[in-house]
Amino acid sequence: MSAAAADRLGAVTSGSALELRGVTKMFGALAAISDVTMTVAPGERRAVLGSNGAGKTTLFNCVTGGFLPTSGTIRLFGEDVTGFPAHERIRRGLRRTYQISLLFGGLSVADNVYLACRGVNRYRFSLLRPRSGDPLVARAEELVEAVHLTAARKRLVSELSYGQQRQLEIALALAGAPRLILLDEPAAGLSPTERAELIAILGNLPAHIGFIIIEHDMDVALRVATKVTMMHNGRVFKEGTPAEIEEDPQVQELYLGDGTHAHG
Ligand SMILES: Nc1ncnc2c1ncn2[C@@H]1O[C@H](COP(=O)(O)OP(=O)(O)OP(=O)(O)O)[C@@H](O)[C@H]1O
């Protein structure tokens, strides 16, 4: 490729929030993900689906900096971050939620969110009380509202329902100035009512904040995503709109047709 062509390509791709090119991660002889290429636009809502062991979590870990890929490149908002540690990616607006809760059980909802706001504003998890007029208090209130927890704002995390705790985790991921959030199975273990709440919360996130959601619950994934990446055996198997993925005969055969594949 000529330098001019490479420049043009760079100009096109630098508009993406996330770009993976040929990303492979080996564990010994096992390729957990293999030659994964995908591009996520700013503000896009992408679902990554696939049966157990398809490579979804490994993909997340490569994007967040938990794992260094064996080969391939990862660009975040146009910048090559392949070798960057996790905190450098967080500085660039990347966040993630985990399947395991990282909340402070002995603190209130409001305090958890306030500390997350403080944490990304230099005082990492400082336990100082908020001062009056602190703008982060107002910001924390907004985030509590965005995840539908205003009525529970004074309650201790340990007193919240499981679904409320998951909602709070989304508020923590929204602290600071996120531009892309990786959501690791946020609907796992939720009741139907809590799932509906989650769908509403994700649907109402500010348009400039994109997310990638790993989800075993197809209903949630296909309702919140505008585009779907289907993985199989560590590779990208299919990409399309939720409707295209749902109607694809190969996807149906591989994944949707067999309910046992849809639950991890
Ligand atoms: N740290 C590791 N060491 C060795 N093998 C691993 C490691 N992490 C993942 N694997 C393997 O890589 C493959 C992909 O795993 P991964 O957890 O990424 O899949 P997944 O799609 O997230 O699955 P699930 O839906 O069950 O969470 C699996 O075969 C898994 O056993």
UniProtKB/TrEMBL annotation:
Every ABC transporter domain range: 18-258
SMART domains named among the record's database cross-references: AAA
InterPro entries: AAA+_ATPase, ABC_AA/LPS_Transport, ABC_transporter-like_ATP-bd, BCA_ABC_TP_C, P-loop_NTPase
Protein name as annotated: ABC transporter ATP-binding protein
Domain of life: Bacteria
Species whose genome carries this gene: Roseomonas fluvialis
Keyword set, alphabetical order: ATP-binding, Nucleotide-binding, Transport
An example Gene Ontology molecular-function term: ATP binding
Signal peptide: none
Coiled coil: none
